[in-house]
Design a protein that fits this description.
CATH superfamily: Putative cyclase
CATH architecture: 3-Layer(bba) Sandwich
Strand order of the largest sheet: 1-17-15-9-11-13-14-4-16
Mean pLDDT: 97
Strand content: 25-35%
Number of domains: 1
Number of helices: 6
Radius of gyration: 19 Å
CATH topology: Glucose Oxidase, domain 1
CATH class: Alpha Beta
Number of strands: 17
């Protein structure tokens, strides 16, 4: 319990070999126990430690502004070639994302059909009189978090229509997040720009809005709330394009 809040809700999916991973970020995740308590030491005290290999954009994570470019530029019209190197980015790396301790508004749209696109109208109907203010976080439940142990089904999750992405940007949120792989529906081509993953093209490089992916919002949905305090702390991985996170909701 935290004074002023009755409940703390964990919004991170568990990480394990075989969890859903977008094809662009395979092989994804590997953990191996390197030192074991069974290793002979001749001492009363033993120790164990492992090695973790993980793509930035696997599991519950946040996209840094360096993750996507529009017409060769990152957010603020920064040319990618001026800041990109084999060791990462000198601007817009994930270490620049501040700790997110913000009001969040929660649109519970579940259940949605596989690869269904939710619209701005869907968000407004779900939220009723509640609206995000500038600097808030927009969380959207599609219902697909329940399929986290079934990669094929999870990768066909519902996601944001172009209108929903623009609606979020028009409300000047600082981040959007959903219980799916990409906020967008992967593979759908925006007819105007010719790009897939329109939100990644629009929110990150053009609007400076972060995207949080692979949330679990099932427990939050049982509370009936449309607003909560959202806490999300990216790791300071210098120059990286994303970071694993363990977000929580305080209600």
């Amino acid at each position: 319990m935290i004074p002023g809040y009755g409940r703390v809700i964990d919004l991170e999916q568990p990480r394990f070999a075989g969890m859903p991973v977008h094809p662009s970020h395979k092989p994804g995740y590997f953990y191996a126990l390197h030192r074991r308590h069974s290793d002979p030491t001749g001492m009363a005290r033993t120790s164990a430690a492992g090695m973790l290999t993980m793509m930035e954009h696997t599991g519950t994570h946040i996209d840094a502004l360096s993750h996507q470019a529009a017409h060769g530029c990152l957010h603020g019209n920064v040319p990618t070639q001026s800041v990109e190197s084999p060791s990462g980015f000198s601007q817009h790396g994930v270490e620049e994302i501040p700790p997110l301790v913000r009001r969040a508004v929660f649109a519970d749209l579940a259940p949605l059909e596989p690869e269904q696109e939710f619209t701005a109208d869907d968000l407004e109907r779900s939220l009723g009189d509640v609206r995000p203010n500038a600097g808030d976080v927009l969380l959207v439940r599609t219902g697909f978090a329940k399929l986290w142990h079934d990669e094929a089904a999870y990768l066909k999750a519902a996601g944001a229509h172009k209108s929903a992405t623009i609606w979020a940007a028009d409300h000047k949120v600082c981040a959007v997040g959903a219980d799916n792989m990409a906020w967008d529906v992967p593979g759908i081509v925006d007819q105007e720009t010719g790009v897939t993953l329109f939100a990644h093209f629009y929110l990150l490089p053009q609007k400076g809005i972060y995207i949080i992916e692979n949330l679990t919002l099932e427990e939050l949905s049982t509370t009936g709330v449309k607003e909560c305090l959202f806490v999300c702390l990216p790791l300071k991985l210098n120059g990286a394009t994303g970071s694993p996170v363990r977000p929580i909701a305080l209600i």
